[in-house]
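Dear Dr. H.,

I hope your travels went smoothly. While you were away I took the liberty of generating a structure for the chain from your last submission, since the lab meeting agenda had it listed for discussion. I wanted you to have the full record in hand beforehand rather than looking at slides cold. The sequence, exactly as received, is reproduced here:
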Amino acid sequence: MLQNDFFYIREMKTEGDTLNVQLELNPGHRVFEGHFPGQPVVPGVCMVQMIKEILEQALEKPLHLRQADHIKFLSVIDPRINASLQTDISLKHTDTGVDVNATLRKEAVVSLKLKGNFVFV
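The corresponding predicted structure, in token form, is as follows:
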């Protein structure tokens, strides 16, 4: 679990089937000691995990990423420069979970686009 250690949710707004979330990264987290020393970059797997944990909090159910139709890493995130981020997630509920379109960004600079399906565990 990365929430409340690697990243923090500062604000979460729900409008229909859309989540708008303000995040704050922990630039001192130990993951950055190895990824990469002197030039910290948020690992792609952590970006995907943050989306999953945000969804779990919003839906109040544990999830598993079943399928990812598209995952695009468009720009690196240096936590020393871009510690405040926003994620926008649109949901479509299914019988077993949710279909998701998500972006992780700093203002207009998008770092991650994800389209996939999460199932309830």
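Two observations you may find useful: The chain has two helices and six strands. The longest strand covers residues 109-120.

With kind regards,
E. W.
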